[in-house]
Inverse folding.
């Protein structure tokens, strides 16, 4: 029997397992943050749409560095839709063709950064010395506006 003929392994995942895995992504407690980093892997046009909605639905202005990584192709689409100016006007910095845990783009790379990306949360502590707080996109937007971790429950 070849590798293609084998039945795939099945791993059952429950809510408690997900909570434990998510908790391990954080290397810093909830509190003040220096930045928010989104887009690892790179943001899609659809994710930019969700980001716009979250910014519009969350009161206040972005008060900490807020970076989103994406590709040149996506940024061209976002620009054509008129969203880039809107996002930069709201305080978002769009980074193209790299990730903020690889290139030292963050003003305070070893500070406390919030992300919604498990990949970013995994690599940034070793690559940048960053302390990481993990949350949803809405948590990240609310936190970028408050300058501290906000849990929205969304």
């Amino acid at each position: 029997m070849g590798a293609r003929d084998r039945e795939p392994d099945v791993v059952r995942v429950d809510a408690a397992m997900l909570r434990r895995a998510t908790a391990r992504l954080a290397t810093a407690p909830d509190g003040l943050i220096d930045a928010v980093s989104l887009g690892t892997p790179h943001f899609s046009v659809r994710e930019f749409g969700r980001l716009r909605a979250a910014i519009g639905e969350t009161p206040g202005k972005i008060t900490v560095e807020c970076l989103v990584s994406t590709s040149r192709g996506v940024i061209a689409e976002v620009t054509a839709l008129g969203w880039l100016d809107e996002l930069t006007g709201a305080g978002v910095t769009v980074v193209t063709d790299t990730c903020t845990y690889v290139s030292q783009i963050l003003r305070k790379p070893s500070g406390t950064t919030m992300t919604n990306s498990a990949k970013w949360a995994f690599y940034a502590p070793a690559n940048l010395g960053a302390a990481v707080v993990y949350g949803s996109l809405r948590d990240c937007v609310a936190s970028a506006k408050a300058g501290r971790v906000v849990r929205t429950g969304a």
Remarks:
- Helices lie at 15-25, 45-57, 72-80, 83-90, 118-128, 137-146.
- The radius of gyration is 17 Å.
